[in-house]
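Workshop exercise sheet. Pairs work together: one partner reads the sequence aloud, the other fills in the structure field after running the prediction. Swap roles for the next sheet.
Pair: D.N. / O.F.
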Amino acid sequence: MQTDQQNAGSSESSNVAAMRVEYSQKGLRREDLAPDPVTQFTCWFQEACAAGLTEPNAVVLATVSATGQPSTRTVLIKNYDKRGFVFFTNFESRKARQMGENPNVSILFPWIALERQVIIEGKAEKISTAESIQYFLRRPHGSQIAATVSRQSRVIMSRKLLEMEYETMKRKLMNGKVPFPSGWGGFRIIPAEFEFWQGRANRLHDRFRYIAGDENTWKIERLAP
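Structure field:
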């Protein structure tokens, strides 16, 4: 016999199961694709920006520890080109530690409003200190201070203590430059595979995969939805 709590849980589950959106955007054809994935990505990224999506450079980053434990979080891509996709973090963060143990990563651009997503798989490596400093100097003053005082992923006693440390550092550096924190910097994801996903009616989605070959060539394959 089910309890009221079990019945409530079953009802909530049914509500989730009933959620459905019918995709209506135009499809993606093989002949529409650029020969290289970065060019194709740029086309879609520009369309995401033009559509007014909130933070179209936000990605879900998946990393895996040396013991096989996966974890995900949202980060912001701050630069990309044919070499790869760059984001910044504290080197003591969980993601940085996991990438140090296992450089294989995946990122997902969830452009839901456009019924699109892009998945990129590859290896992460640290960028040069010079590149990290160059970006750090372009950050807002408050963000520079935050990168200095935050010991990312560490257990802290309270937010109040964190804010006190921030305000102390802010007063100290009111009229001066924030020193570049040696424990902070960028990672570049070097792609080995891209997948471009376009939602279609009746869940018959369009999916195309680019796989890296020799001498900067890419093999393009259509995948079943």
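Discussion prompt: Residues 25-132+182-223 form a domain with the Pnp Oxidase; Chain A fold (CATH 2.30.110.10). What would you look at next?
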